């Protein structure tokens, strides 16, 4: 009974997922997500909005609507495996993003969406990964009911930096170098000594011919990680290019 979920509303569901041979691969007594945000497999994204609270439904999902052609390690799903989902819609409520939430809830939402982005990235769906990373940032940056404590503040910053670095990686896979550079720079505004962001920013600056800036960034990255062979290689390439330019 009750209305079906509306766009933007959050749902809680009980989920069981099984392979064709009956092997149980997924069990979650209370999975919370917002349909359309890419946090769950497409079978649940499409199926749950057709349900009413208290309803139990079975969804037989071909592999494109489950874990895709490569399958999954966690949960353990073979390649191209169809799945049968038993889903109970427990609750429908307004979505969490516009409302002030405790820092711990923001952290949970941010982590959940970033992990979903990592899942999409591993499958090669970089547009979906980028969408999940942006939703993660939106959750982390939303209004908070009370000021976070020192540990929560630190964790919020760390998660933002992880998401921005992941955004940069996804943007590069999509061929959008300017957007990737902007994501790196946003990460460095939060954490100026983040090695991953420094290295990628240096590489992107070098690709644009901004060699002096790139060298400064890469030298700073090398100070933080002197044994990093990739940084040594990038600096060596820059030095050769600058030497060649000066000789001509």
UniProtKB/TrEMBL annotation:
Record has Repeat as a keyword: yes
InterPro entries: FKBP4/5/8-like (IPR050754), PPIase_dom_sf (IPR046357), PPIase_FKBP_dom (IPR001179), TPR-like_helical_dom_sf (IPR011990), TPR_rpt (IPR019734)
Top-level taxon in the UniProt lineage: Eukaryota
Enzyme class: isomerase
Entry EC no(s): 5.2.1.8
One Gene Ontology MF term: protein folding chaperone
Domain PPIase FKBP-type: start-end pairs: 8-93
Protein name: peptidylprolyl isomerase
Organism ancestry: Eukaryota, Metazoa, Chordata, Craniata, Vertebrata
Gene for this chain: Fkbp8_1
């Amino acid at each position: 009974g009750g209305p079906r979920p509306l766009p933007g509303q959050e749902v809680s569901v009980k989920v069981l997922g099984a392979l064709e041979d009956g092997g149980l691969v997924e069990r979650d007594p209370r999975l919370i997500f917002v349909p359309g945000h890419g946090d769950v497999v497409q079978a649940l994204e499409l199926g749950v909005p057709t349900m009413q609270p208290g309803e139990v439904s079975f969804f037989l999902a071909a592999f494109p609507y489950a874990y895709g052609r490569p399958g999954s390690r966690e949960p353990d799903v073979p390649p191209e495996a169809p799945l049968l989902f038993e889903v109970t819609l427990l609750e429908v409520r307004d979505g969490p993003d516009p409302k002030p939430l405790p820092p711990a809830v923001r952290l949970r939402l941010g982590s959940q969406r970033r992990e979903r982005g990592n899942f999409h990235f591993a499958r090669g769906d970089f547009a979906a990964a980028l969408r999940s990373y942006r939703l993660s940032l939106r959750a982390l940056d939303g209004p908070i009911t009370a000021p976070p404590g020192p540990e929560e503040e630190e964790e919020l910053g760390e998660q933002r930096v992880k998401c921005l670095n992941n955004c940069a990686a996804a943007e590069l896979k999509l061929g959008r170098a300017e957007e990737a550079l902007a994501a790196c720079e946003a990460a460095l505004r939060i954490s100026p000594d983040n090695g991953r962001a420094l290295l990628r920013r240096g590489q992107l600056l070098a690709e644009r011919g901004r060699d002096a800036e790139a060298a400064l960034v890469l030298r700073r990255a090398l100070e933080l990680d002197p044994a990093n062979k990739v940084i040594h290689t990038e600096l060596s390439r820059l030095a050769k290019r600058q030497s060649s330019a000066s000789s001509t």
